[in-house]
């Protein structure tokens, strides 16, 4: 059998990882397997005397501890990950020879890491930031890494600018402020002088930068890649991940509050969804462009600041990604996983996108600095296909390579490991013709920095536009240098849209001092808007407020109905433990009010009866409802619960549902939750 082509069964990677995974043993030992009698006290000279250097156990333990940290990722340091699988829904042999894309019966194991970009490893999950969406496919032909983001374009067109954009967005070097935030002078200084960042800025200032859940965000490979079939024909392709749960986001006010109330918000949501069996799922989409058609767009397919509008090239849905197992150990798996866009398999190849070309170099380099030259041997990184070559030695080599031969060609080992013939699907670089002078230039075809920024703006619904205006204004109002803010307005925003520039000028107290360079176009791409209802409320979290005298039957009916829809519920009361229900029973409380801020929930239910009267006198409950209302969340009030809304002048309608028939109210609540949020509410006067 051809060893390099063993089949990766669904559990192939799980089995591989199991070889490195272990449960705690019954006896405490040193690293040398020596059983210990006392791990509580150091060896000392006399009961109150100094510690002895001889204490090898203490020295081993403390030294290991001293060396527990490795350098965090220079970007994308904060992340969370999960195991799962990928499966195509149709045979894509016409496009690619990659085995993972050819057999709908085959499940390829994956490990997926989501991340923020700017913050340190210990920062919060919810800053305004791009999210990484990196997928490691353990295919039977080798590891393929699709290292993408949740935004389909990037700030810069050439990898040589990457250290600059990252230095600008990271905390400022003199005082390391601010953590995980782009709202500061250096970031806006850089982008104001880098007009190619404008399209990306529109996305980052939109709610895309505040995902409600990793499972509710899209993913994009960004660059044009190539798919190559067995006949050697290539197509350009853009990769998309489309979430089954729809695309939904937090509000900026929520995101900021969550950063304090539950900095692990997205990480926890991912973990809990998998533990609950509510497996996050995405469809893989492809935008395919024949090589011959590559020049037919008004932009360059190699320019990573451009999308191909879905209306021009539809996204063909070809497979599913399911995450169904949490890691066993954060450090060993999530921290040590090493992605690299250069990890490809036969049938997947690169384009000349200058950002991608730079990434092909950078990731290998960074893994060596983070993990060492043998990073590929770590359990989470090693392939499930056979691996054999003449690389040897280096720090922390685990493999024990037998024999005297570590070179090629050789005769002493029978020529092994040998080249693979074409029939065995070895990787061969796509034979793309290349010619030209050596030049340090930017192609003219990369020169339009504003058309797609305008396209994005034109495609937004009114509330999405409001949030973009608010985000630009918030960020610029954190910038101290007036000339920088002015430049953002005069050099970037005026060239995107008049109303955008005018509205940001008003909110930042600036006056526009330039005129736009060209006439704005009126085109839109509806696919760019997030203003679309979801078809289910799976995984959403509903708070049910409770107080003494609560109607246990009513509350049970609410829970049953919401659980049927796949939503999660939590009963919140003033203190932990239980509340006394109207029928005298003790109703379990999931969380006491101080531990359950409204920002952690998607909707709230206010019960009727005596509990409603009690809640009306509780400040925390009133604040919960007010804040939920102000954040546009669905609010359901049963029976007397509606009095609480009246008391606070919160009008029913637009996602606020009231009534006495539990079934009917819950039905309306579910519909309201599918809308996610109700932006039409007039909340300016609501004190929350
Ligand atoms: Fe990365 N990027 N990047 N990046 N990137 C890293 O690799 C880099 C870019 C992305 O969960 C680093 O292992 C350069 C675009 C993700 O472990 C580093 C350039 C996209 C992750 C690096 C880019 C990404 C990284 C830091 C410009 C979306 C996290 C640690 C040419 C398509 C992967 C590491 C994980 C991580 C370099 C731009 C996505 C330094 C030079 C565009 C999701 O190698």
From TrEMBL:
GO terms for cellular component: cytosol. Keywords: Heme, Hydrogen peroxide, Iron, Metal-binding, Oxidoreductase, Peroxidase. It catalyses: 2 H2O2 = O2 + 2 H2O. It holds the Pfam family Catalase_C. Heme binds at residues 73, 113, 162, 359, 363, 370. GO terms for biological process: hydrogen peroxide catabolic process; response to oxidative stress. Residues 1-32, 512-532 are annotated as: Disordered. One of its GO terms (molecular function) is heme binding. The keyword Heme applies. Residues 29-416 form the Catalase core domain. Residues 512-526 have a biased composition (Polar residues). Its EC number is 1.11.1.6. Its cofactor is heme. The active site is at residues 76, 149. Decomposes hydrogen peroxide into water and oxygen; serves to protect cells from the toxic effects of hydrogen peroxide. Belongs to the catalase family. HPII subfamily. This is Catalase. It comes from Rhodovastum atsumiense.
């Amino acid at each position: 059998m051809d060893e390099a082509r063993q089949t990766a069964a669904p559990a192939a990677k799980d089995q591989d990882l199991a070889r490195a995974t272990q449960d705690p043993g019954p006896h405490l030992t040193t690293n040398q397997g020596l059983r210990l009698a006392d791990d509580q006290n150091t060896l000392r000279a006399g009961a109150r005397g100094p510690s002895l250097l001889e204490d090898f156990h203490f020295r081993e333990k403390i030294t290991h501890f001293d060396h527990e940290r490795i350098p965090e990722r220079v970007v994308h340091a904060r992340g969370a990950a999960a195991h799962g699988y990928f499966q195509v829904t149709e045979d894509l042999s016409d496009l690619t020879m990659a085995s993972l894309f050819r057999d709908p019966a085959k499940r390829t194991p994956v490990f997926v890491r989501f991340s923020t970009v700017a913050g340190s490893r210990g920062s919060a999950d919810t800053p305004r930031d791009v999210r990484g969406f990196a997928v490691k496919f353990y295919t039977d032909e080798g590891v393929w890494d699709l290292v993408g983001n949740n935004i389909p374009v990037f700030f810069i067109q050439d990898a040589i600018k990457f250290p600059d954009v990252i230095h600008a967005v990271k905390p400022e070097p003199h005082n390391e402020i601010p953590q995980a935030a782009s709202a500061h002078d250096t970031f806006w200084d850089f982008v104001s002088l880098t007009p190619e960042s404008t399209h990306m800025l529109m996305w980052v200032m939109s709610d895309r930068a505040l995902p409600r859940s990793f499972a509710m965000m899209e993913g994009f490979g960004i660059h044009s890649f190539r798919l190559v079939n067995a006949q050697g024909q290539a197509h350009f392709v853009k990769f998309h991940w489309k979430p089954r749960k729809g695309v939904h986001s937090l509000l900026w006010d929520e995101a900021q509050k969550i950063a304090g109330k539950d900095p692990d918000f997205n990480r926890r949501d991912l973990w809990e969804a998998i533990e609950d069996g509510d497996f996050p799922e995405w469809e893989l989409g492809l935008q395919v462009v024949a090589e011959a058609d590559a020049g037919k767009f008004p932009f360059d397919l190699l320019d990573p600041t451009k999308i191909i509008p879905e209306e021009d090239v539809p996204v063909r849905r070809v497979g599913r990604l399911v995450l169904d197992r949490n890691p066993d150990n954060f450090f060993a798996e999530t921290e040590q996983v090493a992605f690299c866009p250069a990890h490809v398999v036969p049938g997947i190849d690169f384009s000349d996108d200058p950002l991608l070309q730079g990434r092909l170099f950078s990731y290998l380099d960074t893994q060596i600095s983070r993990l060492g030259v043998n990073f590929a041997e770590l359990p989470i990184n090693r392939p499930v296909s056979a691996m054999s070559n003449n690389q040897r030695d280096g720090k922390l080599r685990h493999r024990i390579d037998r024999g005297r031969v570590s070179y090629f060609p050789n005769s002493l080992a029978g020529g092994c490991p040998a080249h693979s013939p074409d029939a065995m699907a070895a990787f061969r670089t796509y034979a793309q013709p290349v010619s030209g002078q050596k030049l340090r230039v930017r192609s003219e075809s990369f020169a339009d920095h504003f058309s797609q920024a305008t396209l994005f703006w034109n495609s937004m619904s009114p509330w999405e536009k409001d949030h973009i205006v608010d985000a630009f204004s918030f960020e610029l109002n954190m910038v101290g240098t007036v000339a920088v803010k002015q430049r953002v307005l005069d050099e970037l925003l005026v060239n995107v849209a008049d109303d955008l520039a005018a509205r940001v000028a008003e909110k930042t107290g600036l006056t526009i001092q330039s005129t736009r360079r060209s006439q704005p176009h009126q085109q839109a791409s509806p696919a760019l808007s997030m203003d679309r209802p979801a078809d289910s409320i799976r995984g959403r979290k509903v708070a049910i407020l409770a107080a003494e005298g609560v109607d246990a039957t009513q509350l049970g009916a609410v829970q049953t109905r919401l659980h049927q829809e796949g939503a999660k519920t939590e009963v919140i009361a003033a203190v932990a433990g239980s509340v006394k229900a109207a029928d005298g029973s003790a109703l379990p409380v999931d969380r006491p009010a101080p531990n359950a801020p409204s920002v952690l929930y998607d909707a709230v239910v206010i019960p009727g009866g005596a509990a409603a009267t009690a809640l009306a006198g509780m400040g925390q409950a009133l604040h919960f409802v007010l804040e939920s209302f102000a954040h546009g969340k669905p609010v359901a009030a049963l029976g007397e619960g509606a009095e609480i809304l009246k008391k606070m002048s919160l009008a029913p309608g637009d996602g606020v549902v009231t009534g006495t028939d539990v079934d009917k109210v819950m039905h309306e609540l579910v519909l309201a939750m599918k809308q996610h949020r109700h932006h039409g509410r007039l909340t300016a006067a609501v004190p929350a």
